Amino acid sequence: MIELMASRTTAAGFDPGAAGVTPPSDPDRRGVFLTDVIVALGLADRGAVEMVERAAREGGRSIEKGLVDSGVLDERQLARAIAERSGLDHVDLEKFEVDMRAAEMVGRSVARRYNTVPIAFSSDGALIVACDDAFDLLGISDIAVLTRSEVRRAIAAPGQIEAVIERLPEEPAAMPAAVEIEPEPERPEPDGEPEPEPEWREPDETPQAPPIDLVVAEMEERRDPPDGDLGDLGAELQALVTAARNAETLAVTLGGRIEQLEGAEERAQRLEREQSEAARQIAELERELAGARERIAELEQRLNGVNSASEKLKAANEVLLGLQKVLEESTL
Q1: 223 near 230, Cβ under 8 Å?
Q2: If 139 and its partner were Cys, which of 18, 116, 181, 266 is the partner (CB 3.0–4.6 Å)?
Q3: Per-residue model confidence (pLDDT) at position 255
Q4: Distance from C-alpha of 143 to C-alpha of 102, rounded to nearest angstrom
């Protein structure tokens, strides 16, 4: 089993040495099969995992549900494997001390809708949330907009998340001061004449979209509303920045999902080839069986002929014995 040091830097930005937090041992493991990660972590042996995988495929259900229902893994172990595969932190909420100031930034209904709940603040002020699905980013995006915060994910067991949600108020609490956006001081008006706008020229080629970080930096540099009132505008800008970053995260996650689906397609094609070969072998065996049945029928016919000839020979022998007896009596 892969052992992780508690002092390792976490992906979401938990405090160093936080109880119950396990960072990913290999952040580049994203895109590999969950079954391979489970075996690599030593959570279950490959034979048991593959047996559950076959049963899940034949029954039309997810392998995650199959692993838990069969008892091969519990919810906490499954969450550990999902976090490792996604390059995210795993948090055991039975050991981790949840910051209720963070948790109460969303109401119970919102948290229950996505089965996602804030649990801590990172050192740079980002909101860390616990979720059970690494690919469901809709809830993350909505919480980012509602809390006007940058949101980072960690994976936890569904039952543990539900237990935290039950402790939440129905309506969210006020945003903590630690994450409120402070307005910038009013900028003084520049002296002298304003600089002329640069002359526009036809570009030589179609411009490429700049990286998201450059767009964010330019937005932050250019914000200068009248009267220096940045309270609401700053919050809206932060929400837009967070949504843009979440969109970029979603693109990366979808890329990993596409890789996973491509791998699944390759496996499906391989299984299809194996099934085709098995069908060919079955057809060949059926032909051999039909031929064997024909030979058996032929042998049965021959056996019937032999039996009939034997009866005739027996009758002829009886006639011969009768004639011999008559002959012997006539000579006497």
Answers
A1: yes
A2: 116
A3: 67
A4: 12
Among 33, 67, 247, which residue's Cα sits nearest to residue 157? Answer: 67
Residue 116 near residue 102, CB atoms below 8 Å: no
> What Cα–Cα distance (Å) separates residue 319 from each residue in 12, 18, 305, 311?
107, 109, 21, 13
Q: What Rg value do the Cα atoms of the chain yield, rounded? A: 38
Contacts of residue 59, defined as CB under 8 A and 6 or more positions apart, other chains included, come to: 66
**pLDDT at site 174:** 55
Cβ pair 240, 144 in contact under 8 A: no
**If you write DSSP's letter for every residue of 191-244 in order, what string do you get?**
SSSPPPPPPP---SSPPPPPPHHHHHHHHHHH---GGG--HHHHHHHHHHHHHH
Q: Which of 148, 225, 145 is nearest to 181 (CA)?
A: 148
Element (H, E) at 152: strand 151-155
Give the pLDDT of residue 90. 96
Distance between CA 34 and CA 78 in Å, rounded? 9
Phi, psi dihedrals of residue 59, rounded to the nearest 5°: -90, -5
Q: Is 55 helix (H, G, I), strand (E, B) or coil?
A: helix
Instruction: List, as one string, the DSSP characters of 162-199.
Output: HHHHTTS-SSPPPPPGGGPPPPPPPPPPPSSSPPPPPP
For residue 307, the model assigns a pLDDT of 85
Q: List the structure tokens of 35.
A: 């079954």
